[in-house]
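Problem: given the chain below (290 residues), write out its structure.
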Amino acid sequence: MAALKVAAVAAPKIAAVAAPKVAAVTALDRRFAVARQLSEQAATLAMRMRPPPGAAQATLKDRQDWLTEADGTVERFLSDGLAAAFPEDGFQGEEAGSTRAGRLRWVVDPIDGTSNYARGAARWCVSVGLVEGDAFLLGVLAAPALNETFAACHGQGATLNGAPIKVAATNSLDRAIIEAGWSPRVAAADYLALCDRVLEAGVMLRAGGSGAMGLADVAAGRMDGYAELHINLWDCAAALAILIEAGAAVNAFLPNGAAAGGPILAGAPGIAWALADAARLPPPVNFARP
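Solution.
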């Protein structure tokens, strides 16, 4: 199916970002401010281009792996804005790949949850993360159709629309709600086997079509965990920064997942190890086994 044609959609102008009003503004503070502003502008652009509800208006890159006109437009907007603000930084996007190198690297998914977006649904977001080596420094997820913005910066906590968020205090899988992310790169039998294992452990399963938003729901305490056999770095870079600042237990996604993606597990500390055991995924690295 041909990609949706949207006429004369102008990208928002990239405005100067005022520095945070603190005694000493760090380089990371400034990047966090720019990431928040550019993410919101990119989300506004994506909303203008969103197809109406109905059959998907997009092309298929792979099995259930959708591409819309907005994906490329939004990624170019973010790439240009970040290059103008921080020309020394690297950049990696889902559509164009790694286009710039730098000690700090922006990792962008212009629209996470494209299958939802392409049908005019609401569960999708613009994802902007910053990594240094194996460390997730900051992340912003702007979900304009839901009027939600998740944000986090190293050492500053995580927020949803400016209010602090924390993971749930759930401590038993038979009380847990878990999202099992799906990827076309995983055989159907392997995905169904993962679902079967965690269901046998007593959890309630969900699947929402956006890995970034599923991970953000764990950070906000709306769900207790997220498990996926394969996810790409651009899908989770921003979300992992938010999860860590919200107190989630996460596995070591980097360095192995940087180029080809890999398994991800995130959860409330009270259930994360049990979930890793049930799902047979790499265990958390930031919380000891209880």
